[in-house]
Each structure stands twice: as structure tokens, then as C-alpha cells.
Amino acid sequence: MKLIILITSNVENGLEVAVRWQEAGAPGVTVLKSFGLHSLQRKMMGDSLEVPLHIASSMTSMMAYVLRETELNNHVLLSVVPKELVTTLLDEARAVMGDLLEPNHGVAFVVPLDEAIGVRQPENGDG
Predict the structure, then answer these.
(1) Most buried pick, 34, 51, 71, 89, via CB within 10 A?
(2) Does the global pTM surpass 0.85?
(3) What is the per-residue pLDDT across 38-60, written as a single tens digit (0 to 9) for each?
């Protein structure tokens, strides 16, 4: 089994990839909202940010405040799949996101799993 992960700041495309993965046979797709640290730091350095004085005492307090006040703008897709399905899912991601080597198109990676407990088996059409 493999864990395939896609991170994208394009929410609409991320959801389309999730649906395509499911249609391609992924037994389950988890979509998490997230916020990248780099984006958070850029937002903190912007002139439009107004942080209450009592919170501005430390960088971590400021980041926590900004994160609470900011909409989560990334999606992280996770799916545990048989290794035979990985290429198909990556192809589906590329079909929606474009070349993942291009900036701002998303990041995908695959992690080998020694064990996967509680994962549904992919639908095989046998009912």
C-alpha cells in the first residue's frame, strides 16, 4: 500500500482531483484544509495586518493570532491505495492541476506504507 498526498492552494482544483481519485478507484480520499507557513509569514509581514499589542509580544503568538483570523486556503488530499493505483492517481492530478513541476500548481508525493489498518479495499466491480 502507498499513501499518496497532494497539497494545493487551488481549492476548486483540489476538490476536482479528490473526486477523480475516488472515481479512479481510490478506496477513500481525505481532504484537509491547511495553511502554509510561508503564506502565514508573508501575511504577517504585510502592512494590512493589525495585531493587538498584547499578542505582538512573541512571533508564535502573532502567528497563532493571524492563523485564527485567516481563512485556510490550501487543501491536502490523502489516500491510502494499492501501489498499482498510484500512477493513475498522479495522472488524474496532473490532468486537473497541470504540470506539478510548475510553480503554484501543487505538490504531490507518495509514501510507502509498512502497514495500513482499517483501510477499505478498493471496489473491484464484483459487488
Answers:
(1) 89
(2) no
(3) 766 766 666 555 655 555 566 66
